[in-house]
Write a structure and sequence with these properties.
Blueprint: E1 8-14, E2 17-23, H1 37-54, H2 69-80, H3 88-99, H4 113-126, H5 134-145, H6 171-183, H7 191-202, H8 214-217, H9 250-262, H10 270-282, H11 296-310, E3 315-316, E4 322-323, H12 325-334, H13 355-366
Antiparallel strand pairs: 1-2, 3-4
Helix pairs in contact: 1-13, 2-3, 2-4, 2-13, 4-5, 4-6, 6-7, 6-9, 9-10, 9-11, 11-13
């Protein structure tokens, strides 16, 4: 698994970058934003029926693929889409997740400690009515802090987190770490969150104050402003370019953007503007930019989270075309849903050919397609 606001947008040149800024007139009314609720419900109902049939007696979903990870994704997606925590399927899933809570506060089985703990904390956050899971959230956040790399200010990997924590940090795991920490109630000002933001900044193809790594200065015009998976530009990095730069791609750029926004980085910050410029130049839902069909459903989920965090009802791409991104994201998922209600990626990378994993990402993504509340 390696893996609502009334605004419009316009593009303008600033410091050599195209920045997406908010505008008042010409915006779509709430009733015109996103997919028709009846259509969305029909797609969700089919997906939920599919998941009900595949849930194991102990409440889990595909525990062999990373322990509680898929179960946590399913649980968070269901609750975010309005399925009650009292629903038997959700109750059983939450009970399974609780059984995976360790004495150290982590929520994992055999490995992937950061990945599964982070996703499980997101699920418990969604279900935390009346503070039922507050202790689990608090202890989980403390556990995650022990996994963060701290190799000094000059090491580009400092502040990052890997699948099991220290060792080989990456942006994918670090963005889950940040989201989980904030979901657990950790302040944005917390040193662990701030250190993670430093690592995330080092993954952006944007040379300057926040990234002094040589690869950022060697980025192609196509890669500028985007994010890469790992900021260490060694020969073994599969994203290394012939010029010595590191390729940007979609999921990581949306992951970087939403991490900045969730952690309180201003939309006026140069890093946010550069990420938005890259997205404007690579906006698509037909494929995963820079990766083709690899990790498509993972990409969809970061796309939805990031644009939801941005708060715009529409997004304007580099050709000045305005996109109702919620509706387009929904349509991309709807046309790929299988007759049995599931999703699966024909590309086997990152195990997205597994229907339970792809469907878990799809259901969570659909929660970001909901029309914004007035």
């Amino acid at each position: 698994m390696r893996t609502p606001f009334h605004v419009g947008c316009k593009l303008l040149a600033t410091t050599g970058l195209l920045a997406v800024v908010l505008t008042g007139p010409g915006q779509a009314a709430d009733a015109d934003v996103g997919p028709d609720p009846k259509e969305l419900k029909a797609v969700l109902d089919k997906a939920i029926d599919f998941l009900r049939k595949l849930q194991n007696p102990d409440g889990s979903f595909q525990p062999k693929l990373g322990g509680p990870g898929i179960t946590a994704l399913v649980t968070a997606g269901l609750i975010r889409n309005g399925v009650s925590s009292a629903d038997p399927m959700v109750q059983k899933a939450l009970a399974y997740l609780e059984k995976n809570v360790k004495k150290d506060g982590g929520i994992y089985d055999k490995g992937l400690a950061n990945y599964t703990t982070s996703i499980a904390l997101m699920a418990f956050h969604e279900a935390n009515t009346g503070g039922k899971y507050t202790t689990i959230l608090k202890n989980g956040a403390q556990f995650l802090k022990t996994l963060q790399t701290d190799d000094g200010e000059d090491n580009p990997q400092s502040g990052g987190v890997g699948y099991d924590g220290k060792g080989r940090p990456d942006l994918s795991n670090t963005q889950f770490f940040v989201e989980a920490m904030l979901a657990a109630g950790v302040p944005k000002s917390d040193p662990a969150v701030q250190q993670a933001l430093k690592f995330i900044s080092q993954c952006q193809n944007l040379p300057g104050e926040h990234n002094k790594q040589p690869f950022a200065k060697k980025a192609s015009d196509d890669d500028k402003g985007g994010f890469t998976y790992n900021p260490v530009a060694g020969d073994k990095n599969p994203n290394k370019t012939a010029a010595g730069g590191l390729r940007s791609y979609g999921a990581m750029t949306y992951a970087g953007l939403k991490s900045f926004l969730h952690a309180g980085i201003s939309k006026d910050d140069l890093r946010v503007k550069a990420a938005l410029d890259w997205i404007a130049r690579h906006y698509t839902l037909e494929e995963h930019p820079g990766q083709g069909q690899v990790g498509l459903y993972y990409y969809y989920h970061t796309f939805g989270k990031a644009l939801d965090a941005l708060g715009n009802n529409s997004f304007v791409d580099a050709s000045k075309k305005q996109h109702d991104w919620r509706r387009e994201l929904f349509e991309a998922l709807k046309k790929r849903q299988r007759p049995d209600g599931s999703w699966s990626n024909d590309n086997k990378a990152y195990q997205e050919n597994n229907p339970e994993l792809a469907t878990a990402f799809a259901v969570l993504t659909l929660s970001y397609c909901q029309r914004p509340k007035k």
